[in-house]
Write a structure and sequence with these properties.
The complex is a heterodimer of chains A (218) and B (800).
Chain A (H helix, E strand, L loop, with lengths): L2 E12 L2 E13 L4 E6 L5 H8 L7 E6 L2 E2 L5 H10 L1 E4 L11 H12 L4 H10 L15 H13 L5 E5 L7 H18 L2 E5 L3 H4 L4 E6 L2 E2 L1
Parallel strand pairs in A: 3-8, 3-9, 6-7, 7-8
Antiparallel strand pairs in A: 1-2, 1-4, 4-5, 9-10
Chain B lengths: L1 H14 L1 H37 L7 E4 L5 E2 H9 L4 E11 L2 E8 L16 H8 L2 E4 L1 H7 L2 E2 L2 E5 L7 E5 H7 L5 E2 L1 E4 L10 H4 L4 E3 L6 H48 L4 H46 L11 H27 L12 H29 L3 H33 L3 H52 L4 E4 L3 H11 L5 E4 L1 E7 L2 E8 L3 H6 L2 E4 L3 H7 L2 E5 H7 L6 E4 L3 E9 L7 E6 H7 L7 E5 L5 H12 L6 E3 H15 L1 H38 L4 H42 L10 H27 L3 H5 L7
Parallel strand pairs in B: 4-8, 5-7, 15-20, 17-19
Antiparallel strand pairs in B: 1-10, 1-11, 2-9, 3-4, 3-10, 6-7, 12-21, 12-22, 13-21, 14-15, 16-19, 17-20, 18-19
The chains are: A alpha/beta (218), B alpha+beta (800).
């Protein structure tokens, strides 16, 4: 199992005291499996994704990613997990504005020390980015930027791809195209995919679905 | 509507109090440095004006003898012939508290314009004749109630450093019996008076002076100070411009919304201008108060410099003038408007459908950088044109201003090129990102870096100038002060006794006799010089005709100092008109640092025949160095000579070097302040940018870098930019040094100095700049290293 969550809880400090966001979530995901994480606003979907990606630490519980417990990792180890084991696609794309498309595509793989130029060429080709390699993010459309973000995340051949509303900023047809590409690449690399989405239509295209309600899997 | 719109705009400052303080601080500092320098200048000029108006010199004609003092008998003869004249004796005495200018007057014959102290009460007049002296408050406080047997009273109307007394008392104190320096000519004269040529043919009638010689001489010094004050002001304005610009960018969404909600562009611009005006007034008040403190701290050094360099007396105390407050507030408002002009222009042209998010700096900057590059090239070209074609001190400073501003504007363009080169050479992903991201930060940091460049260039330029001057000056002192001992007798009789006493105890006794005399271009001094190896072997001649010392000794040629040579365009081979009625040939030019006036040296025998009444009191004594102490002790024992009349070589060199060092204290202080302002500019820019940096750094963190590593990279980025700026500041500073040495000094002081290089100083300055940059970035970097992951995640998540 690539991902296993047991009794994960997380709360945030607010002026009115701690605000519980996750209240003991259990979840498992196998290699090559796709899972849609749905739920209303504030149900804890993005928080769960951030915990799995090592972007934040849980208050309690176990989060095993590729056999390692993220909850027990220090800052350095979580940074290594983000570099080498997971790929993350954000709703806001979050490309690096100072780098061109080619450099953005290769950035994470090079940080992880596993840059494969041939694989990057394949990704650029499959994602339709070859004509734009020398352009900068601000010169691309939203759909193009999200394809760069997917390419960057897949360039390391991650064990698990995390996607937070990856099509939230795209129109319907572009969203469908982007998701299709993501599923194809996940299928080819046998990575697991955990995708946060509000869209029932997109969630239906995943193999499994988990609905979060008030911080718990429904 | 206006009130609501203003409330909406002001909300920004409520949320960003640090930025608000930055803006106030920048403007207050800029105003403080500028108004501090202006206060010093105003105080000094006020002192000169008082001195120039003393005894009605700015209104009355005067009778002077070009060959020296006027015998009192000549004065009496003129009075008997019907001339309405009043005698004045002026001289300087050295006491432990320093040099005092003694002014002897005759209140009975003095015309109304020359009455500096009210002596209309009979008892005051009697007390004055009996030995009461008057001094300005500062000098009176130093002298105490009595000075050498005379009662001392305070008279605020007297020029600084001047002790006024009855003519007879002054003749006694100055040991110049039966002499007067000049005669004041009444405005109204009897028609029956006989012509001057009949009674006193040696005297000339001189027209009143509208400005004192000192005011003219010190113009260049004050222009120097003003230039540095302006530089500091400009550096301060960089902070203000950066703060206002960033505030504008951050408020762009608010402005757009206000426009969309129906607030006209004109109203918005008016509100922003009113906001800037209010800020400027508050900052102006703080700045003027700070400027007062700076001026009060620096004025004693400036006063000492002016006294040492020009013999100009300036009050060491600062008075608070209303005009100064108004000027300070005015410059603050002008500075703020200049700094905000770009923002006001942008707001005027802001489309209602402008992007809601802060503008993409990188894209906008690419365009503006090209424009900036063109402007920079234009300014540098203009500076070079002025360098080739300009003349005078104002042209020299304008040239410097164009070169410095051009270099500052060119800095971001050059840095962008260097960083682009770095990015091209980077091999790792992190390296590529580091260089490219640093390049992207340039627009936000460029103003602070430009301020740093100006401060560093000024430091390198002025440091090189002062260092070169110090080296040259020290070598020159060694040449010029070759004698082991210098003695001044208190009277001619004592001088004769001294000569007899010292003859068997010394290897040579060299007279230092001089008279003040009108020279081409203004007043100056003529010295008699003995024919001796001391001069032949050591005197710092810059250029000379063959057999120069033989020509001087036989009286057929004279030496002039460099100042006179440059000012009047005189060279060896030219002739010069000297009193009395002597057209002398110039046979050499010598360097004469620390003296703004023209000076001529002639052979001793010729001096005695030209100026028979000149005082023969000062001597340079050559003797074995180890006997100096014993001879001084003997002189003290035999003649009771006070310490102030004898000085050995080592002491006079030490005093000269101390005067030299003090001369540049103000410059050094302004340099340090400018560097401090630049460091604050850096800190404020980095602090403001730190908030905007989070969205740029969060993705890199998310892709696998720790916050600590990112913080280190941020620190390295600041160090890299500071180091590159320091490297680029070096050539700019050297050009500045060259201009100061070869153009400004020649125009201001009349001498040109060779340029020496001080790489160790540059290295120290570069390290200082690095330290300043690291310190400035330490706070924002520490904040970044401690940013909670939840804050970084806000960049990615719109929900939890």
């Amino acid at each position: 199992m690539v991902l296993q969550l047991r009794g994960v809880t997380k709360s945030y400090a607010t002026t009115d005291g701690p605000l519980p966001v996750l209240r003991g979530v259990d979840l498992g995901l196998n290699a090559g499996e796709t899972l849609a994480l749905t739920g209303e606003s504030g149900s804890g979907k993005s928080t769960l994704l951030h915990l799995v990606g090592g972007l934040d630490a849980p208050d309690a519980g176990v989060i095993e990613v590729a056999g390692s417990d993220v909850a027990r990792m220090d800052d350095e180890a979580r940074a290594a997990l983000r570099r080498e084991t997971v790929g993350v696609v954000f709703q806001q794309f979050n490309l690096i504005p100072a780098l061109d498309v080619a450099a953005n595509l290769s950035f994470q793989a090079r940080l992880a020390g596993r840059h494969d130029p041939a694989w990057q060429d394949v990704l650029a080709d499959r994602l339709g980015l070859t004509p734009y390699l020398r352009r900068y993010p601000e010169q691309l459309s939203g759909g193009q930027q999200q394809r760069v973000a997917i390419g960057r995340a897949m360039a390391t051949r991650p064990a698990i791809l995390l996607a937070d509303e990856p099509t939230g900023n795209l129109d319907e047809s572009t969203a469908d195209a982007v998701l299709a590409l993501m599923l194809e690449l996940v299928d080819e690399t046998e990575a697991a995919l955990l995708m946060v989405t509000h869209s029932e239509r997109l969630a239906d295209r995943m193999a499994r679905r988990v609905h979060l309600r008030r911080g718990q899997a429904a | 509507m206006r009130r609501t719109a203003l409330w909406g705009m002001m909300a920004h400052w409520r949320r960003h109090p640090g930025q608000f303080l930055t803006l106030l601080l920048g403007l207050a500092l800029a105003t403080a440095l500028w108004s501090g320098v202006q206060a010093i200048n105003a105080e000094a000029r006020s002192s000169y004006a008082t001195a120039a108006a003393a005894l009605g010199q700015d209104e009355l004609n005067q009778l002077v003898d070009p060959s020296g003092p006027i015998p009192e008998a000549t004065y009496i003869a003129l009075r008997r012939a019907g001339w309405g004249v009043s005698p004045v004796l002026e001289g300087r005495i050295t006491r432990d508290l320093g040099v005092i200018r003694v002014l002897g007057v005759d209140p009975i014959t003095a015309p109304p314009q020359a009455q500096m102290v009210d002596l209309s009460a009979p008892e005051d007049l009697v007390a004055f004749f009996s030995g009461r002296a008057y001094a300005p408050p500062e000098l009176a406080a130093q002298l105490g109630p009595r000075f050498e047997g005379q009662e001392v009273r305070v008279a605020a109307t007297l020029p600084a450093g001047t002790l006024m007394m009855d003519l007879g008392q002054a003749q006694r104190v100055l040991d110049r019996p039966d002499q007067v320096s000049r005669l004041l000519v009444w405005s109204e004269q009897p028609l029956t008076r006989r012509p001057l040529s009949e009674i006193a043919p040696a005297l000339n009638e001189a027209a009143p002076e509208d400005r004192g010689d000192v005011a003219r001489l010190t113009d260049s010094f004050h222009l120097n100070l003003t230039a540095f004050g302006f530089l500091s002001f400009a550096v301060g304005l960089f902070i203000v411009h950066a703060a206002i610009g960033l505030a504008f960018e951050q408020r762009r969404p608010t402005f757009r919304t206000l426009r969309a909600l129906g607030v006209p562009a004109r109203t918005l611009v008016g509100l922003l201008a009113a906001e800037v005006l209010a800020l400027a007034l508050v900052a102006g008040v703080i700045g003027v108060a700070l400027g007062y403190a700076i001026a009060a701290a620096l004025l004693p050094d400036v006063a000492a410099t002016l006294q040492g360099l020009y013999g100009a007396s300036v009050d060491g105390a600062l008075s608070l003038r209303p005009s100064w407050w108004i000027a300070g507030l005015g410059i603050s408002v002008l500075g703020a408007i200049a700094a905000a002009a770009q923002s006001l222009w942008r707001l005027w042209h802001l489309p209602v459908l402008a992007p809601a998010q802060p503008r993409a700096w990188a894209r906008a900057s690419a365009r503006s950088m090209r424009v900036q590059g063109v402007i920079a090239a234009g300014m540098i070209a203009l500076g070079l044109v002025l360098l080739g074609a300009g003349q005078g001190l104002v042209a020299a400073f304008a040239m410097l201003a164009f070169l410095l501003l051009g270099a500052a504007l060119a800095l971001p363009v050059l840095l962008s090129g260097v960083l682009g080169l770095g990015a091209g050479m980077a091999r790792s992903a992190l390296g590529e990102w580091f260089w490219a991201d640093t390049r992207q930060q340039l627009p936000g940091l460029s103003l602070a870096l430009m301020a740093l460049l100006l401060a560093l260039s000024a430091n390198i330029g002025v440091g090189t100038m002062v260092g070169s001057f110090r080296l040259t000056f020290t070598g020159w002192l060694d040449q010029r002060l070759a004698s082991e001992l210098y003695v001044t007798a208190r009277s001619e009789a004592e001088a004769a006794e001294l000569r007899a006493f010292l003859a068997p105890r010394s290897t040579a006794l060299l007279p230092i006799w001089s008279v003040e005399a009108p020279l081409p271009g203004g007043p100056g001094e003529i010295f008699g010089v003995a024919d001796h190896a001391t001069y032949r072997d050591n005197w710092p001649l810059l250029t000379a005709l063959p057999e120069v010392w033989d020509r001087v000794a036989e009286g057929s040629g004279v030496l002039i100092n460099e100042q006179l040579s440059r000012r009047e365009g005189l060279s060896p081979g030219d002739s010069i008109a000297l009193p009395v009625a002597w057209e002398a040939e110039i046979v050499g030019v010598y360097s004469d640092y620390g003296n703004p006036q023209g000076q001529v040296m002639i052979g001793l025998s010729r001096f005695e025949s030209q100026f028979p009444r000149a005082a023969q009191l000062r001597y340079a004594v050559r003797l074995p160095p180890d006997e100096t102490e014993a001879v001084m002790t003997a002189l003290q024992r035999e003649f009771g000579l006070p310490a102030s009349t004898m000085i050995d070589q080592a002491t006079v060199k030490a005093i000269s070097l101390a005067v030299f060092e003090r001369t540049f204290t103000v410059t050094a202080a302004l340099n340090v302040l400018t560097l401090g302002v630049a460091a604050i500019a850096m800190l404020t820019s980095l602090l403001t940018l730190a908030r905007m940096r989070v969205p740029q750094l969060a993705p890199v963190w998310a892709l696998g870098l720790t916050r600590k590593r990112l913080a280190w990279l941020e620190l390295m980025r600041a160090a890299l930019l500071a180091a590159l700026t320091a490297v680029l500041a070096l050539p700019v500073g050297l050009v500045l040094a060259w201009a100061l040495l070869a153009v400004v000094n020649v125009e201001a002081f009349g001498w040109r100095l060779p340029m020496h290089l001080f790489p160790a100083d540059w290295l120290r300055l570069a390290l200082l700049a690095l330290a300043a940059a690291l310190l400035a970035s330490a706070w924002p970097v520490r904040r970044l290293a401690r940013t909670a992951p939840s804050d970084l995640l806000k960049v990615f998540a719109n929900e939890r």
